[in-house]
Amino acid sequence: MVDEIKIKQEQIRKRLIEAIKFSGMTNTAIAKQVGISVSMLTDYKNKNKLPSLITFTRLCEILDISADEILGLQ
Question: By C-alpha distance, which of 43, 37, 48 is closest to 5?
């Protein structure tokens, strides 16, 4: 069960990284619009760390992607 959760989290993180990459925006621009530091955004991309629900929602809005897509529900 724990391994399944870790796999799911890694898949979510990878989809989030892809959305950031394909947005065409810089990390600085995304972080500013979301209201987080660039280092926090970098942590989401480079470490096994996921954003809070509020931050996740803002990221989806700014990146113009549905939460369902990031979560793998579509």
Answer: 48
Phi and psi (nearest 5°) for 7? -65, -45
DSSP at 66: -
| Paired tokens of 70 | 């990031």
Extract the tokens encoding 53: 């629900």
pLDDT band at residue 2 under the 50/70/90 scheme: low
Amino acid at 57: T
User: Shortest CA distance to 41 belongs to which of 52, 27, 53?
Assistant: 27
Cα–Cα–Cα angle for 53, 8, 12, nearest 5°?
50
Q: C-alpha 26: how far from its chain's center? A: 14
